[in-house]
């Protein structure tokens, strides 16, 4: 197969949702369609269970298991699908943000009863910032939920999307009869009481035909006609170019658990979702079909075996082919590296691979060379745009609890931050180190890992911060900025990349600061140009 055909064949995407909306179930159903697994339930180990929130050892164990399922690949109708798994647990949201830098599109799962939830809002915002094409799947239609139009409104308003439904439910919950597929013009009927299988798929191009009454009954037929008329009147027609630009989002309805509406979603997905996209590096735009390899590290998974400090760096291939045993330039270190056992991922296994193509993910064994955002090339001095950091939710001072082990502690903190476990801020005033995390759980994870992997001990002290804001002065030499730095000295820190960060101690102080120093812009993410 030609290089171009290999690229055209790939679809690399992520599924995002608020926990419990049905991401795992949908992933599993997609894998079943692809023949990658034989039975439902196989992907469950990937999920960090709610019951484990207080047990970080268990979470680490589960994270270990999930290495193999970080990338789930399968073939479906001639396409190679790579699903990049994103942790559902809120405390690992940073992992998910980073994974989103490696996807070419996403599917957003929303629970029909709960509507748009907090985690979905955050994740969709990241996708919007990057114009990632999104398809919305409204799940659990076998249950009573919100009215479809209300939900579409909510999706538009809360998520800032411009939707167009490509399918529409016929009834809901107890009265759920099936789905009208607007994209393919057909009806899928749900079977009787069990609602476990599609009873029939009927191609139905003329919605006015009296046949409709015979199939779904007169009341449902009338409602469906009215609804479809409203859909046509209110929503724009599907526009593939707009979807690809990230300015329009098609919506599907279904029930992942009951395998309903999933095939329709997948069939449409492989048709419209983009193959590996060109990617902007700091120096230039890189096209997927360039023959020289470029790629970047978006995730590091550490310590499958704590004794060896072995890490697996996940590299997304942007252009060219990745070959086993060929030397590549690690741009940040300006050093050539060869990889004798790169891993590729297929279904739930990982295996050594000789050649990988754009869109694919390779897992490289690493002993501490890589950090998130590193670029690999065949010699070009290229840097993929940094992966943004977002303001953590929790902040604590970290103190050394064993003065004999300060080197170990520094190294441990350094490496854990490279992995993206948390963010480190160094206070301008006194050089003290503050760790910022998305979830309180990470503090336990860090403490445990520092002790068991690096032999260092730490303690924490509360440091009340409302939000970390990246500072962007209009003019670094103007008086306003100088005054800002003088007055706010206590609240200023450098992040790991050396960027200046304002740690606002309350919403009020943040607001006052913004008013008082209008020329000093405060951003909630580290990427703002
Ligand atoms: P997540 O990965 O987004 O966190 O969600 P997950 O797929 O684990 O689904 C969360 C719960 O919602 C699960 O139930 C799952 O069975 C259920 N679910 C998923 N899709 C549907 C659907 O279409 N209809 C209905 N009615 N339920 C659905 P659970 O009881 O929490 O877990 P389990 O005991 O079933 O594993």
Description:
- Helices cover 28% and strands 28% of the residues.
- Mean pLDDT is 86; it is low at 45-54 and 192-196.
- It starts with a helix and ends in a 6-residue tail after the last strand.
- The protein is globular.
- By secondary structure, the protein is α+β, with helices and mostly antiparallel strands.
- β19 (343-346) and β20 form a beta hairpin.
- It has three domains: 3-272, Rossmann fold (3-Layer(aba) Sandwich); 279-377, P-loop containing nucleotide triphosphate hydrolases (Rossmann fold, 3-Layer(aba) Sandwich), CATH 3.40.50; 394-523, Peptide chain release factor 3, domain III (Alpha-Beta Plaits).
- It binds guanosine-5',3'-tetraphosphate (G4P).
- Guanosine-5',3'-tetraphosphate (G4P) binds at residues 17, 19-25, 47, 88, 139-140, 142-143, 255-258.
Characteristic key phrases:
Rossmann fold; binds guanosine-5',3'-tetraphosphate; 8-stranded antiparallel sheet; globular; 529 residues; alpha+beta; 7-stranded mixed sheet; 28% helix; 3 domains; Alpha-Beta Plaits
CATH third-level topology of the largest domain? Rossmann fold
Bin the strand percentage: 25-35%
Bound molecules: guanosine-5',3'-tetraphosphate
* Domain module tally: 3
């Amino acid at each position: 197969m030609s290089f171009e055909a290999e690229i055209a064949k790939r679809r690399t995407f992520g599924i995002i949702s608020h926990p419990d909306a049905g991401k795992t179930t949908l992933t599993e159903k997609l894998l079943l369609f692809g023949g990658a697994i034989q039975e439902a339930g196989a992907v469950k180990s990937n999920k960090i269970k709610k019951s484990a929130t207080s047990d970080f050892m268990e979470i680490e164990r589960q994270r270990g298991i999930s290495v193999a399922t970080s990338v789930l690949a399968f073939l479906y109708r001639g396409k190679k699908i790579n699903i990049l798994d994103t942790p559902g647990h809120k405390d690992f949201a940073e992992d998910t943000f980073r994974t989103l830098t490696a996807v070419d599109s996403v599917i957003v799962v929303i629970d029909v009863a709960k509507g748009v939830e907090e985690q979905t809002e955050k994740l969709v915002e990241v996708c919007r910032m990057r114009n990632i094409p999104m398809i919305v799947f409204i799940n659990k239609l076998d249950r009573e939920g919100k009215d479809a139009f209300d939900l579409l409104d909510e999706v538009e308003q809360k998520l800032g999307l411009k939707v167009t439904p490509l399918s529409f439910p016929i009834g809901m919950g107890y009265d759920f009869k099936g789905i009208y597929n607007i994209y393919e013009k057909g009806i899928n009927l749900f079977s009787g009481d069990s609602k476990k299988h599609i009873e029939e798929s009927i191609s139905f191009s003329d919605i006015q035909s009296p046949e409709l009454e015979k199939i779904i009954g007169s009341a449902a037929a009338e409602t469906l006609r009215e609804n479809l008329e409203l859909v046509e009147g209110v929503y724009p027609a599907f526009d593939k170019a707009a979807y690809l630009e990230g300015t329009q989002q098609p919506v599907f309805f279904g029930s992942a658990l009951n395998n309903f509406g999933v095939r329709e979603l997948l069939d449409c997905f492989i048709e419209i979702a983009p193959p590996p996209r060109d990617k902007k590096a700091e120096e230039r735009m890189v096209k997927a079909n360039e023959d020289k390899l470029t790629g970047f590290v978006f995730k590091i998974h550490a310590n499958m075996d704590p004794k060896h400090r072995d890490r697996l760096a996940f590299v997304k291939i942007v252009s060219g082919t990745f070959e086993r045993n060929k030397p590549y330039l690690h741009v940040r270190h300006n050093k050539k590296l060869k990889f004798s056992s790169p891993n590729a991922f297929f279904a739930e296994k990982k295996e050594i691979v000789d050649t990988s193509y754009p869109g694919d993910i390779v897992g490289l064994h690493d002993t501490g060379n890589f950090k998130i955002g590193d670029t690999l090339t065949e010699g070009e001095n290229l840097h993929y745009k940094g992966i943004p950091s977002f303001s953590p939710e929790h902040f604590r001072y970290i103190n050394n609890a064993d003065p004999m082990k300060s080197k170990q502690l520094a190294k441990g903190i350094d490496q854990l931050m490279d992995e993206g476990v948390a963010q480190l801020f160094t206070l301008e005033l006194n050089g003290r180190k503050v760790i910022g995390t998305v979830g309180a759980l990470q503090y336990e994870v860090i403490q445990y890992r520092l002790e068991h992997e690096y032999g260092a001990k730490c303690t924490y002290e509360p440091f009340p911060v409302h939000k970390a804001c990246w500072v962007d002065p209009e003019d670094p030499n103007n008086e306003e900025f100088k005054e800002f730095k003088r007055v706010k000295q206590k609240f200023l820190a450098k992040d790991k990349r050396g960027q200046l960060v304002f740690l606002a101690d309350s919403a009020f102080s943040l607001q006052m600061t913004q008013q008082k120093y209008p020329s000093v812009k405060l951003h909630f993410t580290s990427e703002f140009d």
